[in-house]
Write a structure and sequence with these properties.
Keywords: ATP-binding, Chaperone, Hydrolase, Nucleotide-binding, Protease
CATH class of the largest domain: Alpha Beta
Mean pLDDT: 80
CATH superfamily of the largest domain: P-loop containing nucleotide triphosphate hydrolases
Number of strands: 11
Number of domains: 3
Protein name: ATP-dependent protease, ATP-binding subunit HslU
Pfam family, one: ClpB_D2-small
InterPro entries: AAA+_ATPase, ATP-dep_Clp_protease_ClpX, ATPase_AAA_core, Clp_ATPase_C, HslU, P-loop_NTPase
Domain AAA+ ATPase: 49-361
Radius of gyration: 30 Å
Strand content: 5-15%
Largest sheet: 5 strands, parallel
CATH topology of the largest domain: Rossmann fold
CATH architecture of the largest domain: 3-Layer(aba) Sandwich
Helix content: 40-55%
Structural class: alpha/beta
Number of helices: 20
Length: 468
């Protein structure tokens, strides 16, 4: 974070999101303030809490993408939740505290993956050894099945091996050793990747037994292994897979054995507390219009349930308690019917920053198609390239596509940048269908082709025939 100044954060966000500079600046300052807080004296750190943000704007203008990209930029635990999924305590639905539990689970999973990367080399060696043992089983003492009665009987000592048996065993072991060395070299060279082998894998289906009490399954379901530990050994099942796939499975299993999960849980909770980001979408849907009857009562109840979490409280999770005081909350909504002033005053105070995002213009669509790193044009070009065809878009065709998307948003429901996917699907429908049959190595999308698909000049008022 030392090098990630607010200006650099905005520059990084510009690679994926067009426009919306006010929103980008707001989240950039919020991220930088977290770094600044970490440099404060110990007696001041606890006094500084994040300034939560509400992003206002129609769907598809970049609200979620801004939050997701900034979390990825600083590798912070991030979850997105829909406010409409929550209900007031006492009603059937998701408990608002589940958003914090989901954040903790995400954070712990992130830490676990990082720790597994650190032991990858050792885990890979162990996995290759297991694969080699499957291909050339090592010598093991075979035990006969004993009955309870046999346990109390004096065991019969085995007969000493003869000289011929000893010589035969030595010869077999030498042959097996040479075979293992030869196969080991072939494994390292990748010559056996497609060979099928049978391995033992963890039976995840039997690992977790959910127990629910009351109405809230999120808070009451838990893993029986967490309680019984070694009294419930991990069940195994056999699976036939290629060596290439077996290696991935075994590396994952071996890496999990090499890491300290107690430390992972501790670091995960700490990361969620200090750096976690919770994005609450459609927050305007839990704001009433001032009535005290009907659904507005329940909506206000959800706000009051969210309030202590945003204010700062301690939530119990199966990994341990977590404080929410320093989690950054970002709310988002269109606010077509309600407005922030309709939110209960206490919750308004916990979202001191509100930013208005602009609707996308025709020029914005052109920028999205041509200057973002994850542009829909690049996505379709890579998709069609799998058929050995280069898809080329001329500038005039790109402008025409942007115009179609913009006009459709104006006349129908405004779904923002998502409209581009609808337009592109229609534009490339025939190409995608026949791509495997084409003999040429490239296909050019020009203005004539785009006009032929949409007929905008002749059927200006009939877009819905071609678009959703």
């Amino acid at each position: 974070m030392k090098e990630l100044t607010p200006k650099k954060i905005v520059t990084e966000l510009n690679r994926y999101i067009i426009g919306q500079q006010a929103a980008k600046k707001a989240v950039a300052v919020a991220l930088r303030n977290r770094y600044r807080r970490s440099l404060l004296p110990a007696d001041l750190i606890d006094e500084f809490t994040p300034k939560n943000i509400i992003l206002i704007g129609p769907t598809g203008v970049g609200k979620t993408e801004i939050a997701r990209r900034m979390a990825k930029l600083i590798k912070a635990p991030f979850i997105k939740v829909e406010a409409t999924k929550f209900t007031e305590v006492g009603y059937v639905g998701r408990d608002v505290e589940s958003m914090v539990r989901d954040l903790v689970s995400t954070s712990i999973r992130n830490v676990q993956q990082e720790k597994m990367k650190e032991v990858y080399v050792e885990a890979e060696k162990n996995a290759n050894k297991i694969i080699l043992d499957v291909l050339v089983p090592s010598k093991k003492i075979k035990e006969t099945l004993k009955t309870p009665f046999d346990i109390f009987m004096k065991p019969t000592p085995p007969s000493p091996p003869t000289q011929n048996e000893l010589a035969g065993d030595t010869e077999k072991e030498q042959s097996k050793k040479e075979k293992r060395e030869a196969l080991s070299k072939e494994l390292e060279a990748g010559a056996l990747e497609d060979q099928m082998i049978e391995i033992e894998v963890d039976d995840d289906g039997s690992k977790t037994i959910g127990i629910m009490q009351g109405m809230n399954s999120d808070s009451m379901s838990f893993n029986m292994n967490d309680i019984l530990g070694d009294f419930m050994p991990q069940k195994k099942k056999k699976k036939n897979v290629k060596i290439s796939e077996a290696r991935k499975i075994l590396i994952n299993q071996e890496a999990q054995k090499l890491i300290d999960m107690d430390q992972v849980n501790e670091l995960g909770i700490q990361d969620a507390e200090q750096n976690g980001i919770i994005f609450i979408d459609e927050i305007d849907k839990i704001i009433g219009n001032g009535n005290n009857q009907g659904p507005d009562v329940s909506r206000e109840g959800v706000q009051r349930d969210i309030l202590p979490i945003v204010e700062g409280s301690t939530i119990n999770t199966k990994y341990g308690p977590i404080k929410t005081d320093y989690i950054l909350f970002i709310g988002a909504g269109a606010f077509h019917v309600s407005k922030i002033a309709d939110m209960i005053p206490e919750l308004q105070g916990r979202f001191p920053i509100s930013v208005q995002l602009d609707s996308l213009t025709e020029e914005d669509f052109i920028e999205i198609l041509t200057h973002t790193e994850n542009s829909v044009i690049k996505q379709y070009q890579e998709l069609i390239r799998t058929e050995d065809i280069d898809l080329i878009f001329e500038d005039e065709a790109i402008k025409y596509i942007a115009k179609i998307a913009y006009l459709q948003n104006e006349e129908d429901e405004n779904i923002g940048a998502r409209r581009l996917h609808t337009v592109m699907e229609k534009l490339l429908e025939e190409i995608s269908f026949y791509a495997s049959d084409y003999e040429q190595s490239e296909f050019t999308i020009d203005l004539n082709y785009a006009e032929r698909i949409f007929h905008i000049a002749d059927k200006h008022d009939n877009y819905q025939k071609y678009l959703l």
